Amino acid sequence: MRAPHRDRRGSALAALCLALILIAAPATAQEAAVRVLPNGTAYEASITVTGSEHTFWTPGMLGERVPLQVEGLEVLGPAGPVEYQDAGRGVITFPEGNYTITYRAPVRDNRLVAAFDTPYAVTVDLPGGFDVRNPLIGMVSPGAVISTGPNGTTEVAWDGIRVVEVRFYTPDREILLTTFGTIWVAVALVLILPLVISRRKEGE
């Protein structure tokens, strides 16, 4: 027995509404927590992964994907560590599922770069003594929210981003920058002031 035309039209409308909701709903970003070690030479990361593989990479000089060498790698499932296979070129594979991957990677010249294949909600924690807020010597990727945590720590967060870059500095570098800036301003005044005075005398 065929369904009445009105019922069929109602079912089609409900299916269309459901499809629109699924299309309009934003994809939930995976999460990554990154903590810079106290000496500033490496970071520890904990990221959530859904699927059967993950790629560790970093942008090269021309934007190409360069495999990232990591240490202390663990793939953790609900029941604990899971065995993974190294497929080369920064790729690891594991059984399909939901996991948390932890690892450690280097930081060079106070510049941290973390890259992902899909948008991640990323939080970078800097230990006390490091900062990013002076734009002359510090830098963060666009869209970051910077806040101060306990014990003088600094937290930098993004809602959804594929490549994170953070350049941090120590108080010593900021003091050095301020000192050099003060010296240059003093030199400029010494050079410019006599010129201004002489021009005023010529105009009288």
CATH class of the largest domain: Mainly Beta
Poorly predicted runs are: 1-27
**β content, as a range?**
over 45%
- The whole-number mean of residue pLDDT values reads 82
The domain count comes to 2
Helix count equals 2
Structural class: alpha+beta
**Main β sheet profile:** 10 strands, mixed
CATH T-level topology of the largest domain: Immunoglobulin-like
Q: How would you spell out the order of helices and strands?
A: HEEEEEEEEEEEEH
Helix residue percentage:
25-40%
In angstroms, what is the radius of gyration? 27 Å
Q: What is the molecular shape? A: elongated
Keywords: Membrane, Transmembrane, Transmembrane helix
InterPro entries: DUF5803
Transmembrane segments: 175-197
Pfam families: DUF5803
Describe this structure in words.
The protein is of the alpha+beta class. The protein has 2 domains: 26-169, Immunoglobulin-like, CATH 2.60.40; 171-204. Helix content is 26%, strand content 45%. The chain contains 2 helices and 12 strands. The strands form 2 sheets. Strands 1, 2, 5, 6, 7, 8, 9, 10, 11 and 12 form a 10-stranded mixed beta sheet that branches. A two-stranded antiparallel ribbon has the order 3-4. A hairpin with a 2-residue loop joins strand 5 and strand 6. It starts with a helix and ends with a helix. 16% of the residues are buried.
